[in-house]
Design brief:
Length: 349
């Protein structure tokens, strides 16, 4: 679905940066302490920009995030995944208040090489070159905590623009918009969805039904794979390319961050909101973010006692697979032993 919203002219705040020249300022590093992911269609529009010059804003991935949020399938506390998100922004500038030639790079992981966006600081606000102009733009690998109960996904972002607004604590509110390869996006989304559905099917039955209704008829209740998720028409529709550049199709993305100074290069957040969201096995968990005081674990995960498992059965330290005859609402069932792939339809359905 395209975002059919008229975009005001940007010329006043995003005039062309100076010609490409080496950046000779000082590198200033910033870490992400908060992800600002769109949770509604309107927030997706606010995070967007006109990337192709048709006077409408573009943010197809942001619209997917909004849908995930409505289904409670969007990562709830993404900053808790600090051990998996070593992303930094590097600002090369002589002056962080007013400077006509500034480079800003997005480094998804330590050691990554990235092409910086070229732009300027004016009164503490940084505006880079615009994607619509096609020159002096950022390129790099983006690491994004997108799906609940799943690790961050990673994909190259191209033709990206970066905007920074200073705040009172020495950090910045940032927006990044750009384009990604739709085939890579589909594969990464299938990976994230698969992990989410496998690790916690109880909480994601609705999404499972939407994404897999056209690829399963009488399959086994847990028979979901990355390969068949990539064929799901619903997921392919949500990630349909909406940009065309030089004969190549792209997918638009626009998201926000809050940045804090981090000249050491890696500054993980010190406070975890919920250890059941950090994608690390810790505290009393029997597997990653499940068991113990967290939600019960899905299929093929470690357990200690029966209550660690959504199937209510722990066999030799592993959660038993769901079946259509175990007397429990588990797997992707919408009722007890009914409503899932391979199970009978539920009464009154």
């Amino acid at each position: 679905m395209r975002l059919l919203v008229t975009l005001p002219l940007l010329a006043a705040c995003a005039s062309s940066p100076p010609p490409d020249e080496p950046f000779t300022g000082t590198d200033h590093r910033y870490a992400i302490d908060r992800y600002i992911l769109p949770t509604t269609n309107n927030e997706a529009r606010v995070a967007a920009d006109d990337l192709d010059g048709d006077h409408t804003v573009d943010n197809q991935v942001g619209m997917l995030m909004a849908l995930l949020a409505q289904q409670n399938d969007l990562a709830a506390n993404p900053s808790d995944m600090r051990d998996l998100l070593p992303t930094t922004f590097v600002i090369n500038a002589h002056d962080l208040t007013d400077d006509d030639h500034v480079g800003v790079s997005y480094l998804g992981r330590p050691g990554d090489s990235a092409t910086p966006a070229t732009g300027r600081f004016s009164q503490g606000t940084y505006v880079s070159a615009r994607t619509i102009d096609g020159v002096r733009l950022a390129n790099g690998a983006m690491v994004l905590p997108l799906f609940a109960d799943a690790d961050p996904i990673e994909f190259p972002i191209q033709r990206a623009e970066i905007d920074l607004q200073t705040d009172f604590d020495g950090g910045y509110t940032a927006k990044v918009r750009g384009m990604i390869d739709p085939d890579i996006a589909l594969h990464q989304a299938a990976l994230g969805t698969y992990q989410m559905l496998r690790s916690n099917p109880h909480d994601h039955v609705g999404l499972a039904e939407i994404l897999t209704r056209d690829i399963f008829t009488n399959a086994a209740p847990i028979d979901v794979t990355v390969a068949n998720l990539e064929t799901a028409s619903a997921l392919k529709s949500l990630l349909a390319p909406d940009q065309m550049v030089d004969g190549q199709r792209f997918l638009s993305i626009g998201i926000g961050f809050h940045l804090v100074p981090c000249d050491e290069g890696t500054c993980a957040a010190t406070t975890v909101i919920d250890h059941c969201d950090d994608r690390v096995q810790d505290a009393d968990e029997t597997d990653v973010d499940c068991g113990g005081s967290c939600h019960a674990c899905g299929y093929d995960t470690k357990c200690v006692v029966a209550t660690d498992c959504q199937t209510g059965a722990c066999d030799s330290g592993m959660c038993r697979a769901p079946t259509c005859t175990d007397g429990i609402k588990d797997g992707f069932e919408t009722g007890v032993d009914c409503g899932a792939y391979g199970c009978p339809a539920c009464p009154n359905n």
